[in-house]
């Protein structure tokens, strides 16, 4: 077990299976020393635990927890191409999409769920640049979707 996976275990978490693609794409690809993940939905055991818009059917706190799940799924996708999460030199960028009710403006707080998980698990290597974007709808009516870009140590 990698040190990153040991840290996850210490937090009471485990790396899930890679979420199978919903369309014509790969969960993650490597280009040089970088791994780019596809957008990761908060799938748990093959399904979304909740659907709807944040600020309507889904609270900001629920969505923040779902963003953590997205980050876990993203780490699983990274491992699928990198082989070992201990190869992560740093998380470079996180992009979070939040399906938002028209007047909801708390997207940064929601995406903090992903950012905080990455920092908890990876320490300074998990601190990154980030965008948090409100959108009208996401695939499968998911409340949140997260993609990450990581640099690998050579």
Automatic annotation (TrEMBL):
Pfam families: YjgF_endoribonc (PF14588). It comes from the Bacteria. Residues 5-148 form the Endoribonuclease L-PSP/chorismate mutase-like domain. This is RidA family protein. It comes from Streptomyces misionensis.
